[in-house]
User: Fold these one by one.
Assistant:
Number 1:
Amino acid sequence: MTMILRSSLLAVLFILLAPLQVIAEPLWLVTPEETLKSNSAKPPFYPRVVPPLDAPVIDVITPKLDGSITSPTPILLKFVPKAPANVKPESFKAYYGTFQIDITNRLLGVAQVTAQGINLKEAALPKGSHKITLNVQDSEGRVGSKIIEFEIK
């Protein structure tokens, strides 16, 4: 095989296989730089707010927040509305860290939000402490919120 033909064949294979490498990698919800900046910033003052009566509940099924978490990790959230209301999946928002970086679109890029919740096979997070605020609204206009804090080992 000539050198030019071999080079051309390798280039074509690289172009065809490159998208597979992207698919195989888990989603980075936040970058190491975002984690470092968030963890080194002074936390802002947030007044304690009582959630509206009968607001939807956000249950974190996985990862288990009471133990050691490794990255990448699956994320499974379950939304529990108070009947007769329904969860409005389009209202879902996720904010990261001290600066409340909106990571909603990062999640929506790889997982679908339904009225029942979210199922993400793998989400990568850098080692360190993390804080994510989750919000979802129901058909009655009540907003349920959950702050999850965990450490990636």
Number 2:
Amino acid sequence: MTGGKPPYRVEQQIGHLLRRAHQRASAIFQETLDDKALTPMQFAALMRLHDDGSMSQNHLGRLAAMDPATVQGVIRRLQERGLVSRVPDQTDRRRTVLSVTPEGATLAKFLVPSAKEVSAKTLAPLTPAEQKQLLDLLERLG
């Protein structure tokens, strides 16, 4: 300790702790979700389109917190699997409109129970009150 100040410990810093929590959540996602080929970002995009309906690729990126390059790759992979369709916007040719295909809608509905299990397993070490508090705090940070 220097000058009475506690030492800087990287393992006690928010970025490090969030990264570790994210790694844990990602591992639980991969082992629990009932589609091992979907990444967390692909799942988020599929579910946003399923829940919110057709939208531009740009809007999806904002809703799912993805940069344009990431959302483009995510959508390409979902489209290759036949889960999402991409068509030019009729009113603005610069925009692309994304929609969930019938296969994508079926998969999204099928995955909801295992997605809920992912959240439950991720939050399991916390009490219900702590779970709510953590989610509220993370929402405020985001």
Number 3:
Amino acid sequence: MVIQTGEAVMYGVSIGIKPQNTTQLIARIKKGLPLKTFGQLCKNLAVPEKELCRILKIPLSTLARRKKSGQLSFEESERVFRIARLYDKAVELFKQPEFGRKWLKEPAWALGDVAPLDYADTELGAKEVEDLLGRIEHGVFT
């Protein structure tokens, strides 16, 4: 889900983030997102916690500690937001959550037959997935 804020498009509404502007979004991520954003992302992607931990590079023992504190670290928040942004963009492009979710999980030829979710486990990989979504949106398939 996307919020229009003036000229800026803000992503993250699907995990409960509703910033007024980019500066506010950055501050929220730096502070650490609430753990519920992780749970909402699991639900949106229809993946178990263990799978999302693998993609986000969060050890299960760390997730257990976060459940006690209720807060993600700055680094974990960035990774959660990275995947949430891709989910939001995929849903925006494919018009329905189930189609966006399916696209993110299936191997993509343009990504070397790796699923976009797996490819996006680094910032550079996420950028490539975002670029691929942009190419699809504009009808460029090479």
Number 4:
Amino acid sequence: MSARTLPVTPPEHVPAPDPFSDLRFFDGLLLRRMLAYLVDIMVLAGLLVLFWVAGGILFVLSFGLLLPVILLLAGLLQTLYHTLTIGGPASATLGMRLFGVEVRVWNGGKPGYLQALLHTVVFYISVSFTWGLVLLWPLFNNRRRCLHDMLCGTVVIRRL
């Protein structure tokens, strides 16, 4: 005879905060998100510089044969950065951590790597196709969610 156990919801899985009941999660969020993304752009620029130095060395040593691989990896660098940091234990990129912002899913839990990848890809696709105009979306909703947040079932909140 085996004992049946009911699934237990971990304590970090609480419903996503409601902006009408607790404004602290969303107060000043737009400015924090913008500043966090500027920091992330600088971090990515630094990573790209290091990558291109290493890629240049590999290009020369391989007589140019590794160029397709180097270009592919350079294109994936942004996606890997956002996916690994948002899907990781902190649920935030380095810029988000600096400004006290984190990504949560609708049940209040942290996104996994697959959802973080989807979040990243949808972000870059939506920004590319709308020339960045989609980033005005948070001005018109109470949770300050971007379109890619809504499409991926995530909410960005202030870490309290």
